[in-house]
Amino acid sequence: MLSNSMDDYPLTLTRIVERAERFHADVEVVSRRPSGAVERTTLGECAARARNLATALEALGVRPGDPVATLLWNQREHLELYFAVPAMGSVIHTLNPRLFPYELAFIVDDASDGVIIIDESLLQVFESFRAGLDFRHVIVVPQDGPAPAGTLDYEALIADATPMTWPELDERDAAAMCYTSGTTGRPKGVVYSHRALVLHSLVAALPDQLAVSAGDTVLPVVPMFHANAWGLPYAAALAGARLVLPGPRLDPESVLNLCAHERVTMTAGVPTVWMGMLAALDAEPDRWDLSELNRLIVGGAAVPRSMFEGFDRHGLTVVQAWGMTETAPLGAVCRLPVRLYEGERDEQYGFRVRQGVATPFFDIRARDDNGELIAWDDAAMGELEVRGPWVAGSYHGGRGTENFTVDGWFRTGDVVRIDAHGCIRICDRSKDLVKSGGEWISSVDLENQLMAHPAVAQAAVIAVPDERWGERPLAVVSLCDGADASADELREHLAQEFARWQLPDRFEFVQAIPCTATGKFKKSQLRTQFTTA
Ligand code: ADP
């Protein structure tokens, strides 16, 4: 019986940061400011500044294991924090500025964030939720001139600090944290370990996955506050790929200009963004030189066939990927298999609209309503369950235990068919959420608010497919006997609690909402009824 003689070398993000510093120091990082100005730096400079930043954060009392919140765009400083915070042993907690103030307040409180770094352009968002929260330090990345009074200046902190020698960490230490929306409407925290993110970066960089290499210029349109920007910043630092960070302006023209001027080779984001780009390209096919752009990774929501066809017309390849905040996020990638290279167009598109084949080290299975494993015959349907080194084993604070099976698999809430080759196709969702433009809208929250209206007896909100946004909420309402309320009145009622973009576009009035045996709204029936209507 032999025993393993290998070194028990820890898989930490520190090694990725050091690699960027030592081996890819000259690789350019392009960062577009909120003003539109383009700033050029290098991986080496970002890694060096990260060392000073870490010392400064430590001096402010940030200890190993402590969360450090960020309210930033895809910008150079965010990359510096992606490097500094995990490498010093603390936990980078990226906040989504598009959330509601009450959600942000809940998340910050739940994570016990004591220090936050904010881009000056997001100060208003910060002010909208900071009341009642206990921040020890507020650090601002200034636009022009110094940070406002009462805050610390990001640049001054770096300028005044000395470089940190990175501590040795355990690969199971926490490195980063993101919140995901829950079916009950309350966000839940997922804490990623170093090991999870290192393995995720290695696998993401593989040729048949996202294929990130030194020859690439990567433009993550997916925000760095969304599931680690799908792992692209770390994968790029590992491979030595050039990074283009677009800042807040993600309108089609700005993104296309960046792709053309910076000769971007790969980009990634949710379908809604690409829908707009496609329309712009169709309108002016010769305006942008995108000859270097060889793949668009699209995920976070289903990619319609029209999008594959549309980009194919411009010689641009869309690759669909599937993932979740709970899976760091990459779980499956849909690459055309060799057997279909010479296939019919229909057959190829029929494959490309699927969510893909699980990445290496990512186990999948699906179980039907009776808890039985479904056959991989592309006919049986079941809820997708996953496990792997970058899949959550629990939520922060022990919440959401019902999302994990007794044998330790994570329940995705996606209802799928799986073909004989292991390729997933999402058919439905068991979780009550609407995904519009890559952002979640809680159907439960909308329903509760609707049912708080005196004229409403029952309300069910479902997601209906939408060309532009992927999905939009539709409200099915039954009114109390003798009561009356118009769609406009109900929309106004919701507007007191929800942002405009979260309000249902359509209201359907019914006598009674169909229910299951357990008294839940039969949303599958409503979807069939109203999706085609
Ligand atoms: P992210 O922040 O990466 O969007 P979330 O955890 O918010 O991750 O959302 C994950 C969910 O998004 C999945 O469970 C699934 O319902 C949906 N989703 C992600 N990718 C796809 C895809 N390619 N096709 C269809 N739905 C997808």
Automatic annotation (TrEMBL):
Its EC number is 6.2.1.3. It comes from the Bacteria. Residues 446-520 form the AMP-binding enzyme C-terminal domain. Residues 18-395 form the AMP-dependent synthetase/ligase domain. This is Long-chain-fatty-acid--CoA ligase FadD13. GO terms for molecular function: long-chain fatty acid-CoA ligase activity. Keywords: Ligase. SUPFAM superfamilies: Acetyl-CoA synthetase-like. The keyword Ligase applies. Pfam families: AMP-binding, AMP-binding_C. It catalyses: a long-chain fatty acid + ATP + CoA = a long-chain fatty acyl-CoA + AMP + diphosphate. Belongs to the ATP-dependent AMP-binding enzyme family. PROSITE patterns: AMP_BINDING.
